[in-house]
């Protein structure tokens, strides 16, 4: 029988305590309800708008997953050719680092200007947001591959693709999944930010509409939904890591 990790209980208790403090502050009237609605009001707003939220959630989830899948494909492609070519690795790495110094919220209006209000700028923004941690994770994993094992395979006449298949890719998976956990969360945030700038559906569009109507209880409801969605995706990535790296059982979270 699987035992619950003590950390899960302590985190759950801490969240419950925070919610109780939040409710107490709201009931005491220390902060006006229009600035900080109580958890009960937020819960009622979530239940009241549940069908509408689920419709917007589908759009955001589709954009996030599509952008994330494209960034995974792009990261594998670039990491493989950079790992195989030292000159390319030294040349492209500074550019990759430079892209991460640019604030996402500043790039989003430019993408809308160039690509319009369709899905393309949203997917592009998610791709740019998720691409870096995945590529850096893979490059780090390839670089840390066991050199002795590689030399052994080379002495046996193994080809490059066999070295990647049996040594580099398996040993890079933990680093890849570390980057994927971060990127999974980034994909949701990137989708919501891109939806702020335009469109007809998505949690970002819903968020913009309730902000204009000063419905802060519904604003908090959608913020909590985005947080829960990010946590669920990160949990799914953790389960996928356990499934694809069974030899690390007990090490991965």
Order of helices and strands: HHHHHHHHHH
The helix count comes to 10
- Radius of gyration equals 22 Å
Unreliable residue stretches: none
Q: N-to-C terminal Cα separation, in Å?
A: 19 Å
Strand content: under 5%
Q: Main sheet?
A: none
Describe this structure in words.
The protein is mainly alpha-helical and about 250 residues long. Helices cover about 80% and strands about 0% of the residues. It has ten helices and no strands. Helix 3 packs antiparallel against helix 4 (about 85-100). The longest helix has about 35 residues, at about 160-195. The model has no long low-confidence stretch (mean pLDDT about 85).
Short précis:
By secondary structure, the chain is mostly helical. It has ten helices and no strands.
List the topology elements.
Blueprint: H1 6-28, H2 39-48, H3 50-84, H4 86-99, H5 104-115, H6 120-143, H7 147-155, H8 160-196, H9 203-212, H10 216-244
Helix pairs in contact: 2-10, 3-4, 3-6, 3-8, 3-9, 5-6, 6-8, 7-8, 8-9, 8-10, 9-10
What attributes characterize this protein structure?
253 residues; mainly alpha; 10 helices; 80% helix; 0% strand
């Amino acid at each position: 029988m699987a035992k619950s990790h003590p950390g899960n209980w302590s985190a759950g208790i801490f969240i419950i305590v925070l919610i109780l403090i939040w409710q107490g502050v709201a009931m005491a009237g220390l902060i006006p309800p229009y600035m900080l609605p109580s958890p009960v009001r937020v819960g009622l707003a979530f239940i009241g708008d549940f069908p509408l939220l689920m419709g917007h959630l589908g759009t955001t989830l589709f954009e996030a997953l599509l952008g994330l899948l494209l960034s995974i494909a792009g990261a594998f492609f670039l990491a493989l050719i950079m790992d195989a070519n030292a000159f390319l690795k030294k040349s492209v790495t500074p550019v990759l680092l430079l892209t991460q110094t640019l604030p996402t919220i500043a790039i989003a209006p430019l993408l809308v200007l160039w690509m319009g209000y369709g899905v393309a700028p949203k997917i592009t923004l998610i791709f740019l947001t998720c691409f870096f941690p995945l590529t850096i994770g893979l490059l780090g994993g390839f670089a840390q591959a066991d050199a002795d094992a590689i030399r052994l395979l080379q002495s046996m006449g193994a080809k490059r693709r066999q070295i990647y298949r049996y040594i580099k890719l398996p040993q890079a998976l933990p680093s890849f999944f570390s980057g994927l956990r971060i990127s999974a969360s980034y994909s949701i945030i990137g989708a919501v930010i891109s939806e702020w700038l335009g469109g007809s559906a998505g949690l970002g569009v819903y968020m913009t509409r309730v902000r204009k109507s000063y419905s802060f209880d519904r604003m908090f409801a959608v913020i909590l939904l985005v947080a829960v969605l990010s946590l669920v995706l990160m949990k799914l990535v953790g389960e996928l890591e356990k499934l694809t790296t069974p030899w690390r059982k007990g090490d991965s979270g």
